Amino acid sequence: MRAYNPDIAMAHGWAAEADGNTMKSVPHSGNHFGALGAKNWVIVSVGNIVDADFIRRHAHMTRLPGYIVKAVCPAHMGGFPMGIHALGVDEAEGYGEDEEWIIEARKASRRPEDYQAWVEKWVLGCKTHDDFLNLLGQKRIWHLKGKIQNDSWMSELTEMSGRLALPKKPTPAEILVSVAARKVEEIIRTKNYRLALCGIGVSNLAAWLAYYSLRRQGYPLELVAEIGYYGYSPQPADPYVFNLRNIPSCRMISDIFTSLAVFMSGAQTSSVGILGAGQVDKFGNVNTTKISAAGPYLVGSGGANDVASGSSEVIVTLEQGKERFLEKVDYITSPGIRVSTVVSQCGIFEKEIGGNELILTGYVPLRSGASEEESVRNIKESCGWKLKIKDKLQAISLPADEEILFIRCFDPRRYFLGSEESKK
């Protein structure tokens, strides 16, 4: 592939000195290579301007050398709405991601008039960066700075503890997380996998649930996150895979290239990928790109294709419906060659790695007291291909109350777990 060399690159750093030497915070994600590839120069925005002695004391954090930087632009909270964690710098304070702001922007983008109003408010209405910060408000900024503290999850979880018991019955997403976690744990123990990388959403929560179960049993599983986390322990109250509060628990912090190309796909790998999907077909191919030729775009690949193509084995999780379980997906984002298992809230579908077609191997009862015949009929009606059924099916139990409560501790705002209405 031909190298991409832009004329000018723009980068955001945690701090820089007047000469342009720029410190970047962890995790390194895409790292500094894109900026280094610029033909002419790099323009840097930074949250802090420091002196040369400060840079020398933290030279291990310097990623952009001053000779390629042509301008340093102060921009407090310049990484917003993403967060910045200044790990290892006692004089620094970071800030967390603003998920509510991101969700607000996503909702506005669904209707042209709403999105235009959002742009007028947050972009065109702010003539300077200070205008933007004033609109954001000091109270919100203080909240984001407090959110990055290691123990801040305690107060957040306490504040929302009354919501954890509701809804009284598990949602389809919660059933999916529980069933997927048990299957992930079984596969990891059977195949002796040492690394697991999970996608966003229910696949992430399933991997976290399996991780803590295996850790309690003394099994040495390490979690990997695409942007550079290795060996982290997920903290409650925030279900996002890139939650910056997880950084202090990491045993190693690197970048995307190390996580995906070496840890998950390298010659010595012993890894399992747990991925979400917009659609899956009977061969295990995954679509997270686009629904039909004229349909909407989805989230894209991210690191999913790398994980699906390079991991030892792949497990796919998604809520089942005929529009999502297809004979053939609209677009192959991630090939199904290494997909061995697909888990839905209705059942488990399996095939040999490199094998042909997924078959139903286990079912979740449609409701309490439902027969196998009734439950399997519902699964077949929610599947877009002529589903093959294993001769002897595993009956999968619904999650226990304690397990549901544990899952909800990681997503108390129910970003991914759904509401009572989602079951209807």
Core attributes:
alpha/beta; Glutaconate Coenzyme A-transferase; 3 domains; 10-stranded mixed beta sheet
Describe this structure in words.
The chain is of the alpha/beta class. The chain has three domains: 8-74, no CATH class; 99-148, no CATH class; 172-417, 3-Layer(aba) Sandwich (Glutaconate Coenzyme A-transferase), CATH 3.40.1080. 30% of the residues lie in helices and 19% in strands. It has a ten-stranded mixed sheet, sandwiched between helices. Strands 4-2-1-3-5 form a five-stranded mixed sheet. A three-stranded mixed sheet has the order 12-11-14, with no helix packed on it. Strand 6 (195-198), helix 9 and strand 7 (222-225) form a beta-alpha-beta unit. Helix 8 (172-191) crosses helix 9 (202-216). It is globular. It starts with 7 loop residues before the first strand and ends in a 14-residue tail after the last helix. The model has no long low-confidence stretch (mean pLDDT 92).
